[in-house]
Every structure is written in structure tokens, then in C-alpha cells.
Amino acid sequence: MKIGIIGAMAVEIAEMKAHMAQITVKTRAGMDFYEGTLAGLPVTLVQSGVGKVNAAMCAQILCGECAVTHVVNTGVAGSLCPELDIGDLVVSGDAMYHDFDCGGLDYPIGQVPGMPVLTFPADEQLVALAFQAAEMVNPGHTRIGRVASGDQFVAEKGQKAAILAHTGALCTEMEGTAIAHTAYRNSVPFVVLRAISDKADDSAQMDYPTFEAIAAQRCARVTMALLKALKEGE
Questions:
Q1: Which residue among 12, 99, 173, 212 is the active-site one?
Q2: Is 201 annotated as catalytic?
Q3: Most buried residue among 5, 26, 93, 118 by CB atoms closer than 10 A?
Q4: What pTM value is reported for the model?
Q5: Active-site position among 35, 173, 175, 198
């Protein structure tokens, strides 16, 4: 077992990097891939950069050159659900694009032509273990559901309402579905973990800088708890 861990921003991987042992680094496509051990498991940890293209490139390098067996995407997201507050956690049941639109060709929002699925289902074992890990870190504040991704920082209530109407997702962010898509094409199990950094209203511009670091740290701790559970299950 070898786990690939992706965070888009430095703050999303900093705590995990600090806990890694036996680190070696290789650079590919402008990204540093930190290989070593974390919670007793071999891992490759990487900051992908923001957005779907960066995320997909990163995930393909993990699945191909790094030969990971599982992919975990960790980071922050904006809530689409009024019941999800800042610091709450979302474990992906599946992931879909909210900004992929081939409606003129009679495809629904999010559908990639040629793909047999509208949404990319996360691995059931990873989802179950991630939920347990999240509940250990922040009891009573975890939901399993859909993650919606697009190349937009979504800050306005109207934007969020439109995305929710098209996707039924719990949260929105900028990388998870591209990583899910890449993992799906490579037949590599994946899960997306998100800590909420802004609410389902117009407060994102105010809340995001304040709560990003807290949310990212919480999600990193969930990721490490997930790795511990995977190690114990070997």
C-alpha cells in the first residue's frame, strides 16, 4: 500500500509534511513530490497548486510515475449546505464538475462527453474509514456527500445556490473532481476530504482568510487519522 496525498495549497500539506519521516523529494511539472512515511505508511505528499488542470496533472503523476495504490485529496471548501458550519467536515461519496457544460450537445451539467459516469464515486472503504477518522477529530460534525468542483472561487450566495441546484453537492472547491476523474481513469481508489472554510451565504470573502488555516489543519489531522486506520487494517 502506498498513499498519494494531494493538497492544493501549502497550508493544506504543512502539518503532514512536518510529521513525515525518511523524506526524499523529486520535482515533476513544477511540483515537489515528498516521498516518505506518515503514520507508518509509505506516502507521497504533494502540493498541486490551485485548479483542475494542476490537480489532474498532479494526480496522474501520482498514479503513474509514483505508483500509488490510493489517492487522498485533502483541503478546504465552501459550504453549499446551511447545516454545514465553518470547521465541519465533508467526506466525498462522489464528486462532479459544476462548471463543465456541454448542454448545447444535450449533456447535463457536469457530464464529460465520452465518460460513462456523471459523477465519480469514491472508494467505499476509504469513505467509511475517513468518516470514522473525521468523527474522531471533530465528533458530530461530519457529513458524507457530493463534492462539486470548478475553476471558480465561489463567494456569493447566488453562485452557491446555482451550483447546489445543478449538483446537489454539500460543498464546492476547485480540485477534487479533477483528482477523482484522474483516479477513476487509472482505477485507483480515492477519497476527497474537505473542511468547511466559509458558509453557504455571502460571507466567504470575510471568513476565508480567517478560517482557512484552521480548516486546513483539521482536514490534515483527519487525513493522518485515516492513514493510521489504513495501517491498522493491513
A1: 12
A2: no
A3: 5
A4: 0.93
A5: 198
